[in-house]
Design goal:
The chain has helices at residues 20-32, 51-58, 74-78, 113-134, and strands spanning 9-14, 37-42, 82-85, 99-102. By secondary structure, it is an alpha/beta fold. The protein has a 4-stranded parallel β-sheet with strand order 2-1-3-4, covered by helices on one side.
Length: 140
């Protein structure tokens, strides 16, 4: 029997899974490592991750160039402890017993890297606070 607590799981959801949710997932993975299970998905996934988002994260040493937008599934929501939505409104399924947070963030869709940087930096601060909340010993 293990004395270690169960690994918390977080699902980030936005409409296209091409910007905000990808950045949030990348930050949580980067900052918490394997101590938090991370998923991201979109209610209507785009074909590719926003290139300005890939560039903005690349500037700070986080490479998401291999990521692809994923479709939101009921199973992904059911398997997550915390579901963080970012502008997907009523299209995100809700289940009892899950913790839901809605992060109001600017949408990087169609924006250049200059507009994406402040969104990236705000997401990083929110992720640091989230780690302190759900997995305080997980901060690298």
């Amino acid at each position: 029997m293990s004395d270690t607590p169960q690994q918390p799981s977080v699902l980030f959801v936005c409409v296209h899974n091409a910007g905000r949710s990808q950045m949030a997932a990348a930050f949580l993975t980067h900052l918490a490592g394997n101590r938090v299970q991370v998923r991201s998905a979109g209610s209507a996934p785009a074909d590719t991750v926003n290139p300005a988002v890939v560039e903005a994260l690349g500037e700070i040493g986080i490479d998401i160039s291999a990521e692809v937008p994923k479709v939101l599934t009921v199973e992904a929501v059911q398997a997550s402890d915390v579901v963080i939505t970012m502008g997907c409104g009523d299209t995100c399924p809700a289940f009892p017993g899950k913790r839901y947070l809605d992060w109001q963030l600017s949408d990087p869709a169609g924006q250049g890297v200059d507009a994406v940087r402040p969104i990236r930096d705000e997401i990083e601060q929110r992720i640091l606070a989230l780690i302190d909340d759900i997995a305080p010993t997980a901060r690298a």
